[in-house]
Amino acid sequence: MLGVAALTLLFSPLRAADSDWPAATRDQKPWTRWWWLGSAVDKENLTRELETIAANGFGGVEITPIYGAKGYESRYLTFLSPQYNEMLAYTCSEARRLGLGVDMATGTGWPFGGPQVKRDDAEQKVEIKDGELKTKATKFRVKRAAPGGEGWVLNPFSPAAMTRYLAPFSAAIEGLPAGALRGQFHDSFEYTANWSNEVEDRFLQMHRYQLKDYVDALSGKGDPEVGARVRYDYRETMAQLHLDYVRTWVSWAHSHGEIARNQAHGAPANLLDLYALADIPETEVFGASPFPIPGYRYDADELSPNRPQPLVNRLASSAAHVAGRRLASSETFTWLREHFHEAPSEMKPELDQLFLTGINAIFYHGTAYSPVDVSWPGWLFYASTQANPRNSLWRDLGDVNAYIARCQSLLQAGQPDNDFLVYWPIHDLWQTNEGWTRTFSMHDRDWLTETPTGDAARQLLAAGYSFDFVSDDQILHTTVLEKLLQAPGTRYRALILPPTKLIPPETLERLIALARQGATILCIGELPSDVPGYARLEARRQALQSLERSLVWKDRDGIREAHVGRGRLLCSGTLQALLPSGGAKPEPAVAAGLGVLRRSFNGAAVYFLANLGEKPIDQWVGFSRTGKTALLLDPRTGQTGRPASRTTETGTEIYLQLNPGESIFVSLRPNAPTKEPADWAYRTVAGSPVALGGDWRVSFVSGGPDLPSGFVTKELRSWALEGAVAERFAGTAAYETEFELPEGASAQDWLLDLGDVRETARVWVNGKEIDHVWSLPFRVRIGTALLPGKNTLRLEVTNLSANRIRDLDIRGVPWKAFHEINFVNAHYRPLDASKWPVQPSGLLGPVQLIPLKPLVP
User: What is the spatial distance between Cα 687 and Cα 34, in angstroms, rounded to a whole number?
Assistant: First the structure.
């Protein structure tokens, strides 16, 4: 048996009625970062690009001005000049006409900085010299700055400097109509400072001693524990200053009627608190993940050495959930592959992995503005997926965007429904003797992944439980309602304290208070035994010890339990021993091999399920939530239907057929729908496959640099083998063939298996468009379109643009003409595409028809 778990629906996917899907708003569609090279924009090209972006299913753009292209200096606009502001206003007006939103980076390039930053407001570093703290300017200038945005980088530990920095932006924004901009954007922390003019006063205010009096401890002299504790106090001070810095920016955005979108990762602060300051916390995906999906291509030598880390991505969504933010976004597809090597089939698993972490607002990284008169490939950004109209796969991204919009329309609805809060013990990370600030980067993730907290998080996910990370400050703002933990954003069954050495007494006091009010607190190992930092050390230690002495413990089956009021505090050496006391049911779909995310909406439990493994799912799958009725929703096709379901002693079970690479939504509803949905069409293999081995007529329909001559072939192979013109071609070719079903064939349905497709295929059967296949597996049900006797099949296959780029470098065409970082590959070395291997292109097959019959679960 071929292991076909095809969930392609009974009806034509391209004719799907989306009545069961919420109408996609601009926030539910994906957005894209829109680089303005040299800010060399004009009204005609702005309108053309915005219309193209809107037509392809994007919901908005984020404007980020950067360095310019060589030879076009006369077109550059100075950042925030009257001419620039006129183009910004025009962009906002055109975006509104087209139903698009607009965000802007509060600066050019990154990090924040520019000509308005004077030396006193610029970055500073501290070092120990001759037994004293000495400060100096870092002289760090804005990276990838646009014309008029060059200058010193702003000090990220100075709220006062931020206030002064924002003045020119206020003047520009006040000239825009109300609501012209949706929001402001702050990129990930890539500052280099570790000091500001405010540090000493804030340190004294927070810790009641002078940092300069402990230079010897900071120098490694004397007791190393004292040095680590003093460094902790310093790091806590820097974290608070950076929080105030970002808070100043957020408040400023709000004062102009705009939201704030912030990438907290990389900062030397509690990322959960920093993310939560923003209206939209934003994570990022850098590099590619090695999914075991059959047919998924992953060449470690070709790719960036960075890999996405879902646990780190979960910090942004956790902050959104706990703080009650509706959206949690992600900068997506940064260095997904080498330039122009990114296929939609490689995008979808990364998208699904993000959705499973709770991210529900995708930002492409991204789209470079390019005037129509610039030769192909136009203006480009060096770390981009090149989601622009010059990419041969641009049209295909429209269906990728439709998939994202359908997913996000459900993932943004209702409330998150995670089981547990998991405490992030940042104090254990801050109290060390290494370095000055402690940053938490997206690239070096050991601070989370290789810690007991990371271990606990992975154990929870593997066991089928969901969770959000929580900070000390967020715990202080959590209450109890009906024995559930009530954060500002949503409720949780229990709080898990991973193995933790250090904890502020205020945090432990709040945990005990929550338990007294009815909450369940689960502690892996023993309660933390010490406090962090050096300030008022003995007093705080005594406070912590007093709290611990107030607890009366009883041992039960290897678990220590303290009854405090109406709740419980339990400790055990293993998480597995504690989970039965957590009040949550695991999701059986995880044990079946599926990724699971659960939300609640109007009394319904809404599940997003993704098969990112190597085996198909063709079985009954249980769910922890129940419902009177169930609905399946396929986000790729838009089709919906009533699944086979049954109630067992453990809850609701639904029959699922899900191939590796596929995803589905399951809605368990408390009431019967007003209109009964059609039954979901289940199929199973009914016989041996039939190879389509006749002549294929291949013609090239669109693309460049030139359309190759067509050809006829019996052997499906890369069209790049058909001569020099075909080798360098990027675009779309039509494959046409005729076939007859075998005599006596009585299958009630047929599955068209295209085999290896490079990279997407639009499918017509007997002149009827059936589907656009852009993700794995490249299969589509076509039974309803087949006729007795002769049938025609037409496939329009689109390849990568890589071979065309390769040809430019072989011929020495000067397309890389930019003023900075001109032009690097995924390993940040000079890009020489002439050394790339030729990428297979077109329909590689084998193509076969697989007979199907109805399956009654």
Answer: 51
Question: CA-CA distance, 271 to 269, in Å (whole number)?
Answer: 6
Distance CA 547, CA 551 (A): 7
Residue 529 amino acid letter? S
The number of C-alpha atoms within 13 Å of 26 and in the hemisphere containing its C-beta is: 17
Return d(Cα 325, Cα 183) in angstroms, integer. 15
Average pLDDT over residues 363-392: 97
**Do residues 478 and 490 touch, judged by C-beta distance below 8 A?**
no
CA distances for 268 relative to 251, 364, 440, 482, 754, angstroms: 21, 26, 6, 37, 50
Question: What's the DSSP call for residue 721?
Answer: G
Q: Whose CA is closest to 779, among 749, 799, 805?
A: 749
Can you give the length of the chain in residues?
Answer: 857
- Helix or strand (DSSP H, E) at 750: strand 749-753
Which helix (H) or strand (E) covers residue 796, if one does? Answer: strand 790-798
* 8 Å CB contact between 851 and 686: yes
Residue 515 CA to residue 527 CA, distance in Å, equals 14
- In sign, the C-alpha dihedral spanning 504, 507, 510, 512 is negative
Strands 730-740 and 790-798: antiparallel
Sign of the Cα pseudo-torsion (370, 373, 376, 379, in order): negative
Looking up tokens 């069409």 gives 681
Distance CA 288, CA 271 (A): 23
| 153 sits in which H/E element | strand 152-153
Residues 327, 348: Cα–Cα separation, whole Å: 20
pTM (predicted TM-score): 0.97
847 near 716, Cβ under 8 Å?
yes
CA pair distance 409, 25, nearest whole angstrom: 8
CA distance 759 to 841: 7
Check if the beta carbon of residue 183 is closer than 8 Å to that of residue 135: no
Task: Give the separation between CA 9 and CA 780, rounded to whole angstroms.
Answer: 9
pLDDT band at residue 19 using 50, 70 and 90 as cut-offs: low
Percent above pLDDT 70 for the chain: 98
C-beta separation of 627 from 600 below 8 A: no
> Rounded to whole angstroms, how far apart are CA atoms 25 and 635?
16
Nearest to 277 by CA among 108, 427, 162, 436: 162
Q: How far apart are alpha carbons 779 and 752 in whole angstroms?
A: 6
Mutual angle of helices 344-356 and 310-323, in 10-degree steps: 50
In the chain, DSSP finds a helix count (H) and a strand count (E) of 21, 44
Alpha-carbon distance values, 525 to 25, 498, 532, 559, 576 (Å): 47, 8, 19, 10, 12
At 755, which amino acid appears?
A: G
Phi and psi at 91, nearest 5°, equal: -60, -45
**pLDDT single digits (tens) 303-318:** 888 899 999 999 999 9
Contact 134, 173 (CB under 8 A): no
Spatial separation of the C-alpha atoms in residues 287 and 313, rounded to whole Å: 13
DSSP state letter for 387: -
Calpha distance 525→428 (Å, rounded): 15
Asked if residues 99 and 26 have their Cβ atoms less than 8 Å apart, the reply is yes
Whether the per-residue pLDDT at 10 is higher than 60: the answer is no
Phi and psi at 24, nearest 5°, equal -75, 125
For residue 134, give both structure tokens. 């000495």
Dihedral-angle region of residue 632 (phi above 0 means left; psi in -120 to 50 means alpha; beta otherwise):
beta
